[in-house]
Amino acid sequence: MIRRDYWTDRIQAAWEKAPVVWLTGVRRVGKTSLARAIPDAHFLNCDIPDTAAIVENPDRFYASVSEPVVVFDEIHQLEDPSRLLKIGADEFPHLRILATGSSTLAATRKFRDSLTGRKRVVHLLPVLARECAAFGASDPRKRLLHGGLPESLLAGEKDPEFFAEWLDSFYARDIEELFKVGKRQGFLRLVESVLRQSGGLLEVGTLAKHCALSRPTVDRYLDILDITHVAALVRPYHAGGRQELLRQPKVYGFDTGFVSYFGGWHELREQDCGILWEHLVFETLVAHCGRRDIHYWRDKQKREVDFVVPRGGGACDAIECKWDSGNLSLRGLKAFRDNYAAGENYIISPQRGEAYTRNVDGLELTFCNLHQWEQLSVADA
Question: Does position 145 have pLDDT exceeding 60, yes or no?
Fold first, then answer.
């Protein structure tokens, strides 16, 4: 089993704040493996029918547990999971509880209680850049092409059947079962369309027409993709200026492997790497900042900054993703800093040397790779 210490540390830190940790993430991202790696834990697989009988009387069950940690894997399979978690948090405060599921707590009506004040959420992402070497992907091109689901990343060759089977399982287990979506073909057309245009501006009307769905249906399906972590909408950063985009989001698929699969890329050309690198940077930003705190910036002259991360006090960091940092255009960044002067400017690439800072056309730029950005970002926080 490959250790993913960054995530086990996140879980331990979350337990310092609340007794229940909800470990969420897409199907086969490694939630079960991570949960089984928690030491001194009483592990229950809620997919097994007998588990329901074991926890039918929560008080009796919790009183019988000798370990300090209880893990409920795929807890949404139980009839009343929120009651089980609430009793554990309230009546057995010496225990730490980990519950896993592919979606947020809002994904099913079975969760009648939001567990306010009792839980923290850890969103497990596909293998991060910092973890790639442990998974045999020291060359970032393999991570871009195969994606970050452990099974795919560890494979010697990219297997199209893995992605097709994943999609079938995702629909059957997460969509049909939890959300009662009956229009299978329409929903899957939308998923494919979103992943094909991943990294671009979202046009709901165009998407609805292409998928032969109504706008309200597209809006509902996009909400489901957000809840299940399959797609993320990135909102524009703005202060109300007339020349800035104010509302139109960009959409990002959850994993580079699926973006390349739906793009029909069986091997990567240099021109494919740029957009996939942008996705990998986005995943690292999500791990550190959370999805809701990441924006992009664009004005009506189509000048753009890949990502903007607010830092408080009016400051915001601007991040440009460059597969080749030697091919640098600062048109968008300069326009952005004309409006928002305070904050750091990062050029993130797969570079192997040390991070360095350089003044280019009046802008102070920090050139770094993803791991270096993580260290610098923590230091600046």
Answer: yes
What is the per-residue pLDDT across 56-88, written as a single tens digit (0 to 9) for each? 999 999 999 999 999 999 998 888 888 999 999
Structure tokens at 169: 């399982």
Rounded Cα–Cα distance for residues 22 and 12 (Å) = 12
Query: What residue type is 122 in one-letter code?
Result: V
- 244-301 tens-digit pLDDT: 888 899 999 999 999 999 988 888 888 889 999 999 999 999 999 888 889 999 999 9
Burial class (CB in 10 A: 0-12, 13-18, 19+), 126: buried
Evaluated on CA atoms 71, 75, 78, 79, the torsion sign reads positive
Q: What is the pLDDT of residues 316-326, one digit of tens each?
A: 999 999 998 77
Could you give the domains of the chain?
5-123 (3.40.50.300), 129-234+247-270 (1.10.10.10)
Q: Give first-to-last CA distance, the chain, whole Å.
A: 33
Percent pLDDT > 90 in the chain is 76
**pLDDT the model gives residue 104:** 61
- The pLDDT value recorded for residue 238 is 87
| 206 alpha-carbon distance from chain centroid | 25
Instruction: Report the DSSP beta bridge partners of residue 99.
Output: 22, 72
